[in-house]
């Protein structure tokens, strides 16, 4: 057994431990909102409830990816060949694909939750200094697209309305 096989096996076991832990915490609803682990996207960042829901949906897939990685690590260590590192590589590719798919499902679930009202603009990332007293920048506008490009406020309500007329007609 080569050194490369041992290193590859240790790396996939480490990834399996991380993804397995994230999956279990996600399924149980105990994964705290953070910047590094779990399903993170603008949709899951809207509220704690969206983050928890997305990770509950994706959790079983994370656990499945951890099992795939663990099996790949065992095969990498168990096969006495210079090519055994390919088991770790194949397991990593399948696990990353699995996590990508279940994360997409989690994001889809989070999109279905209504946005929590914070008294101002729910989607502002730049603070309240650019928000009029009435709330979002598009509250006084004739069209929600009137504030396109002026701030991040209202971006949740816009949902693709910032396209130019020429871009919309090219579809």
UniProtKB/TrEMBL annotation:
The chain crosses the membrane at residues 6-28, 49-71, 83-107. Keywords: Membrane, Transmembrane, Transmembrane helix. Pfam families: SdpI. InterPro entries: SdpI/YhfL. It comes from the Bacteria. This is SdpI family protein. It comes from Gordonia pseudamarae. The lineage of its organism: Bacteria, Bacillati, Actinomycetota, Actinomycetes, Mycobacteriales.
């Amino acid at each position: 057994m080569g050194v490369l096989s041992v290193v590859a096996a240790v790396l996939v076991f480490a990834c399996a431990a991380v993804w397995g832990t994230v999956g279990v915490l996600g399924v149980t609803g105990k994964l705290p909102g953070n910047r590094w682990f779990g399903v993170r996207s603008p949709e899951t960042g809207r509220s704690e409830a969206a983050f928890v829901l997305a990770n509950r949906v994706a959790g079983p897939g994370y656990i499945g990816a951890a099992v795939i990685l663990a099996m790949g690590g065992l095969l990498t260590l168990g096969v006495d060949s210079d090519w055994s590192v390919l088991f770790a590589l194949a397991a990593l590719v399948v696990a990353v694909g699995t996590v990508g798919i279940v994360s997409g499902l989690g994001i889809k679930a989070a999109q279905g939750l209504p946005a929590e009202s914070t008294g101002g603009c729910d989607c502002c990332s730049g603070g309240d200094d650019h928000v009029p007293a009435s709330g979002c920048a598009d509250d006084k506008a004739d069209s929600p697209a009137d504030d396109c490009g002026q701030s991040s406020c209202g971006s949740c309500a816009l949902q693709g309305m910032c396209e130019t007329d020429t871009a919309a007609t090219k579809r």
